[in-house]
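Structure ticket #2291
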Amino acid sequence: MSLESFWKRAGKSQKSSTCSSPSSRNLPIEEDVVTPIDDVDIESPNDDADVVSPNNDAVPVAASIPIPENTTQSNPNASVESDDTRIYDVHLLPHDPGKRIPILEYPATDRDAVRRGYITMKRCDPRTHNFPRRKIGGMRRFNVAWFDKYDWLEYSVEKDATFCFVCYLFKDKVDSMAANDCFIKGGFRGWNKIGRFNIHVGGLGSLHNLAYEKYNFFINPKTSVAESFFTYTTEAKLQYKYRLTYSLKFIKFLLSQGLACRGHDESEDSWNRGNFLALLTWLSENNSDVAKVVLSNAPGNNQMTSPLIQKDLINCCAKETTRLLIDDIGDDYFGILADESSDVSQKEQLALCLRYVNNKGKITERFLGIVHVKDTTALSLKSAIESLLMEYSLSLSRVRGQGYDGASNMRGEINGLKTLIMNETKQAYYIHCFAHQLQLTLVAVAKDNDDCIWLFDQLAILLNIIGVSCKRREMIREIQSQHVLEALDLGEIESGQGLNQELGLGRPGDTRWGSHYKTVSNVTSLYATIVKVLEKVGSNKLYKDDRVKAITVMSTFESFEFVFMIHLMSEIFGQNDKLCQALQRGDQDIVNGMSFVTLTKEQLQQMRDHGWEEFLHLVLSFCAKHNVEAPNMDDMYVPRGRSKRFFSKVTNLHRFRVEMYLSVIDLQLQELNNRFDEKNMELLICMSCLNPVNSFAAFDKQKLMRLAELYPEEFPTNDMTMTALRHELGFYINDMRTDARFGDLKGINELSMMLVETNKHTSYKLVYLLIRLALILPVATASVERVFSSMTYVKNKLRNSMGDQLLNDSLVTYLERALFARVSDDDVLARFQSMKTRRMLL
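Resolution: structure written out below.
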């Protein structure tokens, strides 16, 4: 198909997809480019608003670059909308040069947009990648120092080859014969012939230097003919900068709060113009200096408020925030935490967080980005993770830890995501999320013990009666308030900030951490309130449907058996809840996490062996307070609300102590031992020797040497490194035990920070490397779960058509607010200027 026929067909398809919404046609026109044809805003195909084209026709904001038919196969990111039109998103340009589409295969009118996309992304220089060795004149591999020597050089992880960045972008403006150069087509891999780099550069008139000249003119338009033709006064440029700066400041404020910038209708006569324009209008009405340069006092085609400008600024803010994250990691190792979940528009999103040790020695977890995946197979997830890392020149070869949930596509031993990554990076050890494992133990206890099943069935009926009606919830609030006032008058409780909060009745969920404990704890706290609500429902004939149910539930609710079981679940789940809260800390390390698990097991064992008397006294006191009849423990057990034939003839003491109390605790201990089998992993046994608690009592030199052997890339066995580590460990432990500053440390995270604070990490570099590797191993995926919680806030039902790129940018700036606050306005504006050919240059 010829290019002319392609454009003709694509034009028809684009015309048929235009939007005819009256509100969108009233949007102000904003031209921000010098060229006769405006730059096309590249956004996800289902973005959340419409924009106006230069001819005042509304077109979808997802205006994308159609590409020739033969490019679809070579680019996995090209998506087909119809038989006549191919859509290519500039935000999805592959960073790896080995995966790129040749620049000549793009339509000529779209190449500048593609060039700017790659220039903004910068050349692909994965300096931290573990470059493979090849046998060519000896065992040779790519030298990372070549990146500094040749600023045009980029490396393809996919092909293990080098390419020329400027020649790829501008070879069509120099000579089509340049395509025969291996630095442009196929890639150069002759690591034993580095003189070819200089041959490629050539003399002053070489094709490379001509392309480099075009590159410099392109990134610095102040020296171009177009810039010389369009001249602007200093005052006009100053006003342009003011308008752009005001727009940026409001966008930064809205992003940091997770609020929407855009409105449904941003025309001047609209009452719903969005937060961004509302704030700008308010400021202009209250500040005369601002009013002089914005909105109606600005040129109609240069107000810097259009949807395209807003999204460009949002994208720049997100990119600069992520740049600070990448700079913080540097060339160090890191771990990955990933999970997938559907957003409000039922699109599967993969969230990726990085775990690393910063320059202060503190373990840190940061959100890198979110990617839309069409399916959740292990191969698709690995490809998405790899492409997201490569976008920022990060390599899987630097991954030293993986943290996911227990899904089969994640932890599968043959084709799971963790296996696929470990096949490439042997030291990327996988840890099943501790918080997920703990939740599985709670669910198992709730579903595997008959008495626990009975308890939660009764709770489900109770919640159906009083938890689904607004009137009955209001009853709970009123009665609860009365009880609080009475208790305050009697001095039974104290008042203060955070005390006596209103409690609700939520259903326990299999995937919601701590939900089982919250349910049983709130029911126990609201026991007297629930009794009164059930009395009102059961005695009021107006509640025809629930009156009989309330009477039946009341019989069970006031039984000693129910009170006993709900207190038992509250005690067991309460012990586990402390562990759950500890595991969700972003700075928690794997050794400390395992010690928390061990401590929880010990406390449950202590409760089993010596806690019966204390627990029974607690239950009997509760029964006496709420007028619940307590049985004589020496009498024979009689079930209440259940048939006798399903229970053996035993005394109450045997029934409540052996069949209920000990049975449930034993089941919980068994589940904890089965789920948390990491204690048997040699890796964690060796890492526990780094624990500084009790004056480094767990220190074991031989196990730490074995730990080093598990990381052969960092500690090669045929090198002097292992000998140096053995000597260094001897000096290290003697120094630590005699230095009072290291005497009260509580974990290896505190040890790492103290080593950096005292500058001893430079004296014990190899030991500090072992500590960093131990800290990188993830404990829980709480950071990823927080991403999904924020995703439902940022992309809600009212903003369900938000594009993937805008969603990612909004989440980055919202979740990493601390980094975002450090982003300079000048850096954002500089990136904004380089994205497209702007009308004015700052």
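Closing remark: The longest helix spans residues 560-583.
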